[in-house]
Amino acid sequence: MLSPNPETAQVQTDAPKTSYRWRVVALLFCATTINYLDRQVLGLLKPTLEADFGWSESDFSHIVMAFQAAYAFSLIGFGAIIDKIGTKIGYVISVVVWSIAAMLHAVATGTFSFGFMRAILGLGEAGNFPVAIKATAEWFPKKERALATGIFNSGANIGAVVAPIMVPWILGAYGWQEAFLITGALGFVWLIFWWRMYELPSKQPRVNQAEYDYIHSDNEPDTSKEAPVKWLQLFKIRQTWAFVFGKMLTDPIWWFFLYWLPSYFAEAFKLNLSKPSPELVIVYTATTIGSIGGGYLSGYFIKKGWPVFRARKTSMLIFAFLVMPIMAAQYTTNIWQAVVLISLAAAAHQAWSANIFTTASDMFPKKAVSSVVGIGGMAGSVGGILFPLLVGIILDNYKAAGNIGGGYNVIFIICGFAYLLAWGVMHLFSPKMERVDI
C-alpha cells in the first residue's frame, strides 16, 4: 500500500474511495459495548449475590473499589504496552484478560474471590480506550476523528442500556453464574472478527489508494516503525497535563451518573428499581446521541475551515455550558423534569468525552497516543475513586439532617461547574493545543 506500482496507483486514485475505516469503527463500537456490559453485570446481580453471600454494603463497596483501583493502575501500563506492541495484539490481550475474568466470576465463592475477579477484570478492561483511540488515530484524519470516537464511545451507553435488559433475563432463565459466563463469552466472539478484519491501513488489502491518501491527508509523519515514547518522558510535556486534568475533573461525573442516578430517582421520586425503568433508558439513550453529535460538531467546524484546536475547544466549551442546567434539578417537581435536565448533562458529558479523547491524537504523534490516553484515563479513574468518597460524605451528612435531596443538590452544583473548570485548566496548559514534537 505504501508503494503501489504506477498502474495500480493510477487505477486506485481514479476509483471511488473505499470506506473500510468505518468497519474499524464498528469493531471498536462493539468492543466498547461488551466492555461496559461485562462491567455492569455485578451491579445488576447485586441483590441476588447479597442474599446468597450475606454481603453488607461495605463488602460490596470494597469489591467495586478493587475494580476501580486495578483499572486506574492498569491504564498507565496498558497505554505504554500498546504503543510498543501495536493495536491489533494489544486489543487481543485486553479482551482475553477481561473476558476470562468476567467468566471466572461464576466460580467466585465470597467477598475476597469476587474482589479478586473484579481486579483482574479492571486490569483487562483498562486496555479498551487506549487501543481504540490509537486505532482511530491510525485510521482517520483529524477532521473525522472526533466523529469516529463519538461513535465507538457510544458503545458505553449502549452497554448501559442493554445490560439491564439482558442480565435479568439470563438470571431468571439460568442463574447468576450463567449471567457471568454468557456475557463474558461475548468478548471471544468479537475477537474472531477483530483478528480477521483489523490491520494497519498500509497492510489492509481492502483499502484502496484513495482511502489511504485520505486517511493520511493531515500529512502526519509515519511513526509506526519508530521506538515508542517512554511514558515518564510524557510527564514533562504540558500538553500531557492538559489532558490529565481534563479527564480527572470530568470522568468522575460520568461515574456518578452511572452509579448514583438510580438511587437518586428512587429516593427523590420513589422510582421502583425492581421493574424496567424507562427514565433511566431515556437518560442513557441521550448519551448516545450526545456522543455521536459531539463528535460531529467539531468535525463540522474543521470542514468549515476552522483550525483544529479552535474547533475542538469551541465544541468543548459549548458542551461545558450544556452541563450547567443540571444545577436546576433541585427545583424540579416531577421525575420527568429531572430526566430532561440530567439527560442533557449526561449527553453533554459524552459529547465532551468524544472530543477530549481526540485532543490526545491532535496534540501527540501516533506512537505516543495510547500512552497519553492511558495516563489521562488513570487520572480520571483516580478521580472516580476519590469523588465517590466525597459523594458519600455529602449524602450521609444531609440524610442525617433529614434532607435527602439536599445532598444531591450540592453534588449537581459540583457537576455543573466541573466542565468549565476543566476547560479553563486545559486552556491554561495548552492554549492552542500545539503539536508535540518528540
Describe this structure in words.
This protein is mainly alpha-helical. It has one domain (about 20-205, about 220-430): Growth Hormone, Chain: A (Up-down Bundle), CATH 1.20.1250. Helices cover about 80% and strands about 0% of the residues. The chain has 17 helices and no strands. It has helices at about 5-15, 20-45, 45-55, 55-85, 85-105, 110-125, 130-140, 140-175, 175-195, 210-215, 230-235, 240-270, 280-305, 310-325, 335-365, 365-400, 405-430. The radius of gyration is 22 Å and the shape is globular. Mean pLDDT is about 85; it is low at about 1-15.
Q: How would you summarize what this structure contains?
A:
The protein has 438 residues and is an all-alpha fold. The protein has helices at residues 6-14, 21-44, 46-53, 57-85, 87-104, 111-125, 128-139, 142-173, 176-197, 209-215, 231-234, 238-269, 278-303, 308-323, 335-363, 366-400, 404-429.
